[in-house]
Amino acid sequence: MDFIYIKGLPNEECIKGIQKLHREVFDESELSIEKLKEKPNLLCCIALDDHKVAGFK
User: Fold this and answer.
1) Domain enclosing residue 27, as ranges
2) Which residues lie below 8 Å from residue 44, measured CB to CB, with a gap of 6+?
């Protein structure tokens, strides 16, 4: 497993993986990218397993 840390919004591929995992964990609830864009000093911590998003904060 690999961990990556991104200041600001991640790239589109990571965002899609985060949204997919969020829907699976939170019963189809959508993660608002617009709300993330509004966060000052955003730091995304992403766990990747075989190049797929396995976790995020």
Assistant:
1) 2-56
2) 5, 6, 8, 9, 10, 14, 18, 56, 57
